[in-house]
């Protein structure tokens, strides 16, 4: 969901996990001139066609081929958990974005999937506090953003499984703790 805290959580996790890097879907938006406009004059940013998704997949696959040369800084994470000690061979890539699970070529790459949710009112309130380039036009949230979120969320739930749903109304600390614990468990499984 837009404004759910995806980027903030990813950045905080990066500081806590060893050899961790982030790829953000926001870095793959097409220029405004290439984004379609609907009959109401809304720029259609909340659709897969507004993004260079093939480039994103390519970036992820390149990282996976050689994470050690990706520029990941080898460092001891903050608050190192016992199971993260001596993890020089462990590399973690966090991919964050709002349409990740609706693009089939990405679905074969995930070890874990997290999905942040927000109720309509809270999402709209948070969105209204953000400044976007280009700026949201009046009615954009109700006319495009929220309907696209619901559409893609339904598609995702019909076509995929194994999601960890996270309540975006919870504190960042609570969400971070939940995700961190889950990632530690996943790392233990992968190392066994």
TrEMBL record:
GO cellular component: cytosol
Record family assignment: Belongs to the uridine kinase family. NRK subfamily.
Signal peptide extent: none
GO biological process: NAD+ metabolic process; pyridine nucleotide biosynthetic process
InterPro entries: P-loop_NTPase (IPR027417)
Pathway(s) of this molecule: Cofactor biosynthesis; NAD(+) biosynthesis
The UniProt record lists the keyword Ribonucleoprotein: no
One GO MF term attached to the UniProt entry: metal ion binding
Protein's UniProt name: NRK1 kinase
Taxonomic lineage of the native organism: Eukaryota, Metazoa, Chordata, Craniata, Vertebrata
Catalyses which reaction(s): beta-nicotinamide D-riboside + ATP = beta-nicotinamide D-ribonucleotide + ADP + H(+); beta-D-ribosylnicotinate + ATP = nicotinate beta-D-ribonucleotide + ADP + H(+)
Record has Acetylation as a keyword: no
Keywords from the UniProt entry: ATP-binding, Kinase, Magnesium, Metal-binding, Nucleotide-binding, Pyridine nucleotide biosynthesis, Transferase
């Amino acid at each position: 969901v837009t404004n759910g805290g995806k980027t903030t959580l990813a950045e905080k996790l990066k500081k806590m996990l060893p050899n961790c890097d982030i790829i953000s879907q926001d870095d793959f938006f097409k220029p405004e001139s290439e984004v379609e406009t609907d009959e109401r004059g809304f720029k259609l940013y909340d659709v897969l066609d507004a993004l260079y998704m093939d480039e994103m997949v390519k970036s992820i696959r390149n990282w996976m081929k050689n994470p050690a040369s990706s520029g990941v800084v080898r460092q001891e994470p903050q608050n190192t958990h016992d199971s993260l000690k001596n993890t020089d061979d462990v590399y973690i890539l966090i991919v964050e974005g709002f349409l990740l699970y609706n693009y089939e070529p990405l679905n074969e790459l995930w070890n874990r999937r997290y999905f942040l949710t927000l109720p309509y009112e809270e999402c709209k309130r948070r969105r209204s506090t953000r400044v976007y380039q280009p700026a949201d036009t009046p009615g954009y949230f109700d006319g495009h953003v929220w309907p696209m979120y619901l559409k893609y969320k339904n598609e995702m739930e019909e076509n995929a499984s194994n999601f960890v749903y996270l309540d975006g109304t919870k504190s960042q600390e609570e969400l971070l703790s939940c995700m961190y614990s889950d990632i530690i468990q996943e790392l233990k499984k992968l190392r066994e």
